[in-house]
Amino acid sequence: MNHLLEVQSIHTFIGQYHILQGVDVRVPKGSITALLGRNGAGKTTTLKTILGLTPPRQGKVVFEGREINGMRSFDIAALGIGFVPEHRAIFRDLSVEENLKIAERRKGDYTRKQDFLFSLFPDLKRLINLPGTHLSGGQQQMLAIARALVADNRLLLIDEPSEGLAPVLIEQLMQAIRQLSAETTVVLVEQNFLVASQLAEYYVIIEEGRSVKQGKMKDLVNDKATIHRYLGAA
Amino acid sequence: MNLSIFFRKNLMLLAILAVLAGLFAAAANGMESSDFVITLLRGLSVGSLTFLVASGFSLIFGLLDVLNLAHGTLFMIGAYIGWTVYVRPDTFVDLLTPLALVFSGFMLGDVWTILSTRSLFAGGTKRVLPWAGILVSALILVGVLRSYPVSIWNPEDYAQSPVSISYLAGQGQNILPPPAAFGSISPLLALAGLLLGGLLLAFSLSLFNAGKQAVSKRLGWRSFAGFGAFLLAGIVFFVFNDALTAFLAALNTNWLFLTAVTVAVGAGIGLGALMETTLIRPLYIRPIYQLMLTIGLSAIGIEMVRAVWGRPEFTMPRPELFAGTGEACPATSLSDWWQYHCSTMILLDGRIRVYNEIFVPIVGLVVLAGVWMLLQRTRLGMVIRAGVQDREMVEALGINVRRVFTLVFALGVGLAALGGVLAAPSIGLSNMMGESFLLNALIALAIGGLTSYPGAALGSLLVGLLQQFIIKYGQIGIPIPFTDIIFKPTPPIVPASTILLMVVVLLILPNGLLGKKE
Fold first, then answer.
1. Is residue B383 part of a domain?
2. Which chain A residues have a beta carbon less than 8 Å from that of B379?
3. Interchain CB distance below 8 Å, A147 and B392
4. What's the CATH number of domain A29-55+72-231, 3.30.70.890, 3.40.50.1000, 3.40.50.300, 3.40.228.10?
């Protein structure tokens, strides 16, 4: 299978804490892959390790056949990896438009992508001049995803997109993620198993800093024992 | 935003500003209109100089979380560099070649990163090597520079000290001494020594960061362009030393002053970039060490200035545009001033100094607007504003935040240096001028809001005005209502008043007038 991203046995420390103790993730090109696991299992750290924000001490991260561990995070991002962090990290003093423009890697990226972004998230067009601090949680999440789409990213790392959102907004976001996955490969960290199972084609379960199981989501949905054991879902 | 919501949200801020406006109006009532205008303009002048220090300090702290306590010293160094270019262009030109050759080594950052990452040394050798390199390079540079001919003053000999030179220059009698010549060292050996010393020093400093910076690009012509440019500049300055000195010495003082300002700001920017990349960067995760480092650098800077320029205070002569005297002066209108370049001008029956009370505030306003435009209207400004809020996210967007850090640090120090060189003809040069302006700037930032750019402007304005009005009332006295007592504030009340204002503001608004909750 053609993998866009391969994470091979990574070990990551934060300070003196050994957070990731051997995580393997394989992300097929053009897919949505969900990283699943309980709170504190190491899912967010895995995303940050891929992006070089918490560099691994051991193991390899290979993106499009190129080893990227050891590179600086802005160089990794510039290869075509977009990041939507857990708490959205909207720049609150920048307007919605500035939040999008800052993500340009080449001049004109934002202008070129405007129609696509506003078709995905029509609300943003109305809010374009408002500062980030005036947006609701759902609007911030949309802006965070739109921001990651301004540059021509081939991989999107999305952390907990449904966290703290109303069901109507979650449904809207899921549609948007499905739509954008036609062009971009997505790695998704999601606590809400229902959301993850409806979106993702592949999954990786991370338990106490180790990847313990991975495969196709449709197989996991029918494997109640695994779901119960690692995710605590019924 | 709805007006009532705005009022509710900013009630305390508006109340404080209303009280301050009331006090200001009371101050206006208590003195002659000419005194009031002069005091107001003096306040604006001090406020502008304070703002140039405070704004740079605030930008650096906001983005980099670095409390640069050497900022005042850099303000002072800007003043002394400006004075040197303006009064002793021969010294300045003599120093260009050594500076260009030594700094050329620092332009090979990519080469040093690759070399230091690939160096095979380990353990103790790896720890000792950078220090050994610094020691050897220092020996080479000191050895060469001791014999390198630089035409310079002598602070120990009054006749040749900056005080005398400055006085004579102010009288239009500045005669440059004959150029210094090579003696015990051959020119070729000196140039080679400077180049070698610079290369070794830059490489040794890069060894401290070995392995901390991942290497992600190959060497290209860009990696050598800066080095080539500095090397070429060093040689050109060497060959055309006398011609360049003669050119600067023959310049009209207005142009020479502009050159001095440009060089001081450029030196500030260069010094800031060098300081951030070599000294501050390795200490980003150790804020206490960073604080100690900047305090240490400040002390070193002051001692270096004392060693080179001496301890006594002196004033930099004003350029011709602001130095006119004679029967036509003081000027009574702007056109008069433009015609006779009077140093003073009559405004509302009061006599003001054009450079101090008109020119300096105008430059302050221009810088305020310029940096505001940079922050609000350019991509760099957008990145700086975003970086102040969330550095990690900016980096995750593919932006090299480290480079922005260096730029902001350099810009901040450049602003301080601009403040210094502007202050030199108005308040004069002294070893402690930086410390007093740093204190003013810190108080202004606490009042306005530590990381707020408009807050830096508002705080500086309030500090400048308050100080000048207290000084004025020290002369004319404040009648205490319902009594015959006239209260005259003594000089120590001047700094105490700004601290009192700071305490009151912080008690009511802990983040300052325009600061945001951290």
1. yes
2. 101-102
3. no
4. 3.40.50.300
Q: Closest Cα to residue A56, out of A73, A81, A34?
A: A73
Asked if residue B52 lies in contact with residue B427, where contact means CB atoms within 8 angstroms, the answer is: no
Alpha-carbon distance of A117 to A62, in angstroms, equals: 29
Interface touch A91/B385, C-beta < 8 Å: yes
Residue B212 confidence (pLDDT): 57
Are B12 and B430 in contact by the 8 Å Cβ rule? The answer is no
- B357-399 pLDDT, tens digit per residue, is 999 999 999 999 999 999 999 999 999 999 888 889 999 999 9
Name the 3-class secondary structure at B332.
coil
Contact residues, chain A, for B399 at CB < 8 Å: 74, 102
Domain ranges of chain A: 29-55+72-231
Structural domain includes residue B190: no
- Whether B138 maps to a domain, the answer reads no
Total tally of structural domains belonging to chain B: 1
The DSSP call for residue B217 is S
Nearest to B451 by CA among B512, B375, B374, B370: B512
Q: How far apart (Å, rounded) are the C-alpha atoms in residues B354 and B357?
A: 5
Joined tokens for residue B17? 């500003």
CA angle B456, B73, B388 (to 5 degrees): 40
Can you tell me the ipTM of this complex?
0.91
The whole model's pTM is what?
Answer: 0.87
**Token digits of residue B238:** 């060497």
Return the CA Rg of chain A. Answer: 17
Range of the domain at B48: 12-119+149-184+210-323+348-508
